[in-house]
Write a structure and sequence with these properties.
243 residues; mainly alpha; 12 helices; RRP12
Length: 243
Amino acid sequence: MDGCDRSSLSFVSWASNITKCSNPAFEKVISRVWSNPELQKDVLAVLTGVTKSIHDKGGTESAAEYYATLVSIHYSTSNLMKLTALNTPSCTKPAEAYLLKLIMCQAYVHLCYIYIRFSVPDSLLRATFAEAAKILVHLLTSCSATDATHTSLLKPLLICLGRLLRAQVRESWSLESVRHIYRYILRFIDYEKPTVRKSSHIAVCNILHIASSGGTDENVFHPACHQTVQHICVSIRQEMRYV
């Protein structure tokens, strides 16, 4: 075994021991050293605190427990400070968003990101839609374009918001509250930064992909199709004004 392998194993052992996390959804967090060590440090800090909170309550580290804990800590700055032991809550936001993305979406690349496998059940996402959507939208709108963590925060938030909307039943899309949340994703489909723009596209594709909602009729379109087309047409007309 060469030095690189030993170093990698040492990091995995150290990270596993520190976080006490055994949920496979977070394997990416503790299995290797990231190119962005500062973000990984924050992610490990939040993961350690969240895992400890679950253990203290006698939890089993299920996807639902991680999801509920990650969502709930956004409501309380004091809880966030206690969990992470960091001085400024804002510096942990990318870490929280990244962990929320991992536990909501155990995503893997398949047919150009069209299909994503999820670990949190749709029923739980539907039951917590209002609460979770409020948190995610708040984080999206509070991002500053001059913030160095802007991109790293937007990408997982858009994926999470898309996952949340994807879980909603067809009937829910008749509600203005649901369509309003969807508009936040559409705002980023022509975003200046390619990685953020791509995350928005992935979210939209995964929402519209389940058009028939379990049915067999291939001609059944998702209720959000019209809203999506309308938004794109408006964007095109606006761009044509400058041509």
